[in-house]
UniProtKB/TrEMBL annotation:
<dbReference type="InterPro" id="IPR004000">
    <property type="entry name" value="Actin"/>
</dbReference>
<dbReference type="Pfam" id="PF00022">
    <property type="entry name" value="Actin"/>
</dbReference>
<dbReference type="InterPro" id="IPR043129">
    <property type="entry name" value="ATPase_NBD"/>
</dbReference>
<feature type="compositionally biased region" description="Low complexity">
    <location>
        <begin position="62"/>
        <end position="81"/>
    </location>
</feature>
<feature type="region of interest" description="Disordered">
    <location>
        <begin position="61"/>
        <end position="81"/>
    </location>
</feature>
<comment type="similarity">
    <text>Belongs to the actin family.</text>
</comment>
<protein>
    <submittedName>
        <fullName>Actin-related protein</fullName>
    </submittedName>
</protein>
């Protein structure tokens, strides 16, 4: 495995990336790169209309360019949108939706940016790549396409693919557990038993951090009587959103919640009240917000209950990992734990996995990447990856032979 082997975790909000050679410690800022999963496609027609339209009848479409900011940039909007800038209008594409790649051209542009501009790959000297995927959502065809693009467009030396939930547990030194991934497009629940993803138990809620942002934005616009950008609502969410310790606490706190003023990073002032508590409550009482799905804790309970082996069921209950960037929401872990204690019989002892002290502070938020970083060391050394030879011999479908996800 080369020093520049790339580890990638694809999310609909951000792509986490870095080299397998990065140093791992409690102080390490890992992953080294967290970049918005957004690509801007500039349309230069507006400019041409000014300068050349009389001479040049043909419209020219600009190339795909990377989005410029890091995570937290205004471009973290999810979905596609059309905006205007001094360089002409552009379309923002979100190539990953709900954890699944849905725009391959845009994704390729993003990979290009990550490999060559951020991770320092040189043309003709590409390395291997480990990709963390949500296997419960992605299809076989998608895995094949990813493999094909990696070998044919990026000339990678090898490809290794693994499930995000399994990798997340690996970062905590576990091979069995139930992962609650609070992402942007969805909240996924996956059980992993003895290092194997338990497919039948996987489920997901039809919303995630993006819906919380949307809810907060609408609520503060109504309260303040003015427009706020998605970025402002997102900043507000990161700082103010909180989950109450129980539904009873939610009831009493929202009843007596007073309006307060908050200053956003860009200097804007915003008044906020009970909506800071409401946004996250949707996970625990979705019916209050018009959703007909199970609550998060019922989903975890149902997933674990679908595992037949009694010993494993107990082990899973005692190894719940709350992962994804949404896990950073104040009170989230505690509420999950409180409700799980009520959902399971007293003979069970639900518990939330704690970050090992030697792991980076950001481990819960980026556990799939950290798990990939750890697994890469063994996987490539033991030739568990797809080599160029394998790919040439069997084609893209070799991905299913190699990885029993
Ligand atoms: N400090 C924070 N507090 C609360 N939410 C946060 C915080 N930081 C990031 N988030 C939210 O977490 C979500 C992104 O989480 P994550 O990076 O795990 O998703 P993703 O992997 O890109 O998406 P997905 O897994 O759904 O495809 C965003 O909605 C973001 O606003
Ligand atoms: Mg994710």
């Amino acid at each position: 495995m080369g020093d520049r082997t790339a580890i990638l975790d694809h999310g609909s909000w951000s792509i986490k990336a870095g080299h397998a050679s990065s140093a791992l410690s409690a102080e390490a800022d890992l992953p080294p790169l967290v970049t918005p999963t957004t690509v801007r496609v500039y349309d230069v027609r507006t400019k041409l209309q000014f300068d050349q339209i009389m001479e040049d009848a043909e419209t020219v479409r600009g190339g795909v360019s990377k989005s410029s900011g890091g995570a937290g940039d205004a471009s973290l909007s999810g979905g596609d949108s059309v905006e205007a800038s001094a360089n002409g209008s552009y379309t923002e594409l979100g190539p990953v939706q709900d954890g699944v790649i849905c725009d391959w051209d845009a994704m390729e542009a993003l990979w290009h940016y990550i490999f060559y501009e951020q991770l320092g790959w040189e043309k003709g000297e590409e390395e291997a790549v480990l990709i963390a995927e949500r296997m419960l959502s992605s299809s076989k065809l998608q895995r094949e396409l990813t493999t094909q693009i990696m070998f044919e467009k990026f000339n990678t030396k090898g490809v290794y693919m693994a499930d995000q939930a399994r990798l997340s547990l690996g970062s905590y030194g576990k091979v069995s557990g139930c992962v609650v991934d609070i992402g942007h497009g969805k909240i996924g629940v996956s059980c992993v038993a003895d290092g194997q993803l338990h497919m039948p138990s996987g489920d997901s809620m039809p919303f995630g951090g993006e819906a919380f942002t949307h809810f907060l934005r609408e609520a503060i616009q109504a309260r303040n009587g003015r427009e706020y950008s998605v970025k402002s609502a997102e900043d507000l969410k990161h700082e103010c959103m909180e989950v109450c310790s129980s539904s009873k606490a939610y009831q009493s706190r929202t009843a007596s919640c007073e309006e307060r003023e908050h200053i956003l990073p860009d200097g804007l002032t915003v008044k906020i009240g009970k909506e800071a508590l409401q946004a996250g409550e949707v996970c625990f009482q979705p019916h209050l917000f018009g959703y007909k799905c199970m609550s998060l804790v019922d989903m975890v309970h149902t997933s674990i209950s679908s595992v037949a082996d009694q010993v494993m069921k107990r082990l899973l209950t005692e190894s719940i990992l709350v992962a994804g960037c949404g896990s950073a929401t104040r009170g989230m872990e505690q509420r999950v734990l409180n409700e799980l204690k009520l959902a399971f019989p007293p003979s069970y002892s639900p518990s939330i996995l704690r970050r090992p002290e030697y792991m980076p502070q950001t481990c819960p938020m980026h556990s799939a990447w950290v798990g990939g970083f750890i697994e890469a060391k063994l996987a490539f050394a033991q030739n568990q990856h797809i080599t160029k030879y394998d790919y040439d011999e069997y084609g893209p479908s070799v991905v299913h032979k190699k990885f029993l996800l």
